[in-house]
């Protein structure tokens, strides 16, 4: 997962969402998509948390 950029992860989440919305998707395929989506969401949340900390450090250094 670490080789993905934030934008790539978000694009993959969008793709997984479209796959799961299809009426002919199997339960097994849907579960696989869901598992991948959960990992991608964790990755994106961590990425955003790290970005927030970086911004806070920058702001603290400017005061």
Task: Write structural notes for this entry.
This protein has 63 residues and is mainly alpha-helical. It has one domain (6-62): Helix Hairpins (Orthogonal Bundle). It is 83% helix and 0% strand. The chain is built from two helices and no strands. It has helices spanning 6-21, 27-62. Helix 1 (6-21) packs antiparallel against helix 2. The protein is elongated. The termini are far apart.
Please supply descriptive tags for the structure shown above:
mainly alpha; about 85% helix; about 60 residues; Helix Hairpins; 2 helices
Tell me the number of structural domains. Answer: 1
Q: Report the CATH architecture.
A: Orthogonal Bundle
Give the DSSP E fraction (strand runs of 2 or more residues). Answer: under 5%
* Helical stretch tally: 2
What is the ordering of alpha helices and beta strands? Answer: HH
Task: Assign the CATH class.
Answer: Mainly Alpha
Report helical residue fraction.
Answer: over 70%
End-to-end gap: 36 Å
Strand tally is: 0
Supply the helix-strand structural class: mainly alpha
What's the overall geometry? elongated
Examine the coordinates and then state which fold CATH places here, giving the name of the CATH topology.
Helix Hairpins
Q: What is the averaged pLDDT score? A: 94
Largest sheet: none
What gyration radius follows from the Cα positions, in whole Å?
Answer: 16 Å
């Amino acid at each position: 997962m670490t080789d993905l950029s934030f934008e790539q992860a978000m694009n993959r989440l969008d793709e997984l969402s479209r796959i799961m919305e299809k009426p002919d998707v199997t339960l097994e395929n849907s579960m696989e998509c869901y598992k991948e989506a959960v990992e991608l969401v964790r990755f994106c949340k961590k990425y955003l948390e790290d970005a927030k900390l970086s911004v806070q450090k920058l702001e603290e250094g400017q005061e």
